[in-house]
Design goal:
The protein is of the alpha/beta class. The chain has 13 helices and seven strands. Helix 12 runs antiparallel to helix 13. The longest helix has 32 residues. The model has no long low-confidence stretch (mean pLDDT 89).
C-alpha cells in the first residue's frame, strides 16, 4: 500500500525517551488507520538509541554530519510518505495528537506549523526565557521580515507535503533548520497553516541539546541573512536619506556648524553602499538557490548592464572632479570652497562605488543560466 504519512524524528542519545516516542507514533497510526512509517535520523548516538529504535519498529538512518538540520534532512531523504511530520525524540511532543496536522495537509496546505502558545500550557514544559522572550521575539521578527503569520516559528512539531519539502530546498545544518522551513515556505509562496499543540516536559534526565543564546543567535543570524532587504536595503535608505537631509541643512549654515558636514556626507556614502550590498547579496542568493528566482530576474541584467553602470558611474565621478577643480579655482571664500569640495568628494566616492558595483554585478550576472 502507498504510504501516506512519514513521521520523522532526529535523535542524539535519547535512550530514555525514544521507545516511548516511537510507541506513541505507532499508536497514532494504528488508531487512525493511517498507512505510515516512522524514521529516526540518528546523529551518532552512543547510548544504544539505535537498537532501541529498531526494536520498537522504526527505521533508523545513520547521519554522520552533526546537527539537528542534517539529521532531519537525511531522515526525510528516506521517507516514502505523501506527507511528512517532524517531531523531537525527547518525549515532549504530543505524538498522539497529530490528526490536526494531517487533516490540514489533506485539505491542501503545504506546511502545517504547531503552535505551542495556543495549546495547553504546562508550566515546566517551556522555560520563561523561551516562552516569553526568545520565541515571541524571533517569531515576531520572522513574521515581519517574511510576511508570515506564524505564531511559533520554532515548534519542532510540524507537517509538510513531500512536494513542498522538495520545493523548499532546505540546506541549514543546525537548529536554524526550524526557521528555514518557515522562511523557505514563505519565499516559495507555499500555503501555510497552523494548529494548536501541547508541549510536555522533556522525559530525559540529561541537559537538552538546545543552547538558548548560541542557538537563538543562529536563528536571528539566519533570518537576517535571508532578508537582505532588512539587513541592508532599509537601513541603507534610512542612513542615506538622513545624511542627505542633514547635509542640505548644513549647506545653509555658518562655519560653526560645518563640523557636522563630514559626518552627514559619510552617512550618504555608507547608506548608498548598504543599498549596493543589498543588490549584490540578493543576486548571489538567487544564483546559489538560497532564495527562489523571481520571474523577471533575467530581464534585470538587460535593464542594468556593465556599460550603463560604467557610463553613469563615470559621469558622477567626472562631476566630482569638476566640483573639486571649481572649488579651488573659483571660490575665494574658504567656507564655500570647503562645502563644494566636500560634496564633490562624496560624488567621487559614489562614482567609484557605482563603477566597482557594475563590474561585480556583471560577474554575478554570469551565473544566470536562463
Amino acid at each position: 500500500m502507498e504510504i501516506e504519512l512519514s513521521i520523522v524524528m532526529p535523535c542524539l542519545n535519547e535512550a530514555e525517551t525514544i521507545t516511548s516516542c516511537i510507541e506513541k507514533a505507532k499508536s497514532f497510526l494504528y488508531k487512525n488507520k493511517i498507512n505510515g512509517e516512522i524514521i529516526i535520523g540518528d546523529n551518532g548516538s552512543v547510548d544504544g538509541s539505535q537498537k532501541l529504535a529498531i526494536d520498537a519498529g522504526a527505521q533508523v538512518v545513520t547521519v554522520n554530519e552533526k546537527g539537528y538540520g542534517n539529521a532531519t534532512r537525511e531522515a526525510i531523504k528516506n521517507a516514502k510518505g505523501k506527507y511528512i511530520i517532524t517531531a523531537d525524540t525527547d518525549d515532549s511532543h504530543d505524538l498522539l495528537g497529530l490528526m490536526p496536522f494531517l487533516e490540514k495537509l489533506r485539505q491542501g496546505n503545504d506546511l502545517v506549523m504547531g503552535n505551542r502558545f495556543k495549546g495547553e500550557k504546562i508550566p515546566e514544559a517551556m522555560s520563561f526565557l523561551h516562552r516569553y522572550i526568545g520565541n515571541p521575539i524571533l517569531s515576531g521578527i520572522g513574521n515581519v521580515f517574511f510576511k508570515t503569520k506564524v505564531g511559533d516559528f520554532h515548534c519542532g512539531l510540524r507537517g509538510m507535503t513531500t512536494e513542498a519539502y522538495k520545493k523548499m530546498d532546505l540546506r541549514t545544518s543546525g537548529m536554524e533548520f526550524a526557521s528555514e522551513i518557515v522562511v523557505k515556505a514563505s519565499l516559495n509562496k507555499l500555503k501555510i497553516a497552523e494548529v494548536p499543540t501541547t508541549v510536555y516536559p522533556s522525559g530525559r534526565s540529561r541537559k537538552p541539546h538546545l543552547r538558548s543564546f548560541p542557538d537563538g543567535w543562529r536563528h536571528l543570524r539566519f533570518l537576517l541573512l535571508y532578508s537582505p532587504k532588512w539587513l541592508f536595503l532599509l537601513p541603507g535608505i534610512f542612513i542615506m536619506i538622513l545624511g542627505l537631509f542633514v547635509t542640505i541643512i548644513l549647506l545653509y549654515k555658518d562655519q560653526v556648524d560645518m563640523k557636522w558636514l563630514p559626518l552627514s556626507i559619510f552617512g550618504i556614502i555608507v547608506g548608498f553602499q548598504f543599498c549596493l550590498f543589498y543588490a549584490l547579496t540578493k543576486i548571489y542568493a538567487i544564483n546559489h538557490r538560497i532564495v527562489p528566482k523571481p520571474e523577471n530576474y533575467s530581464g534585470l541584467f538587460k535593464f542594468i548592464n556593465l556599460e550603463k553602470g560604467l557610463t553613469f558611474g563615470s559621469l558622477v565621478f567626472v562631476l566630482g572632479v569638476f566640483g573639486i577643480f571649481y572649488s579651488y579655482l573659483n571660490c575665494e571664500v574658504v567656507l564655500e570652497q570647503l562645502k563644494i569640495s566636500m560634496i564633490s568628494s562624496a560624488l567621487l566616492a559614489v562614482g567609484v562605488q557605482i563603477i566597482l558595483f557594475s563590474f561585480f554585478f556583471s560577474v554575478l550576472g554570469l551565473g544566470d543560466k536562463s
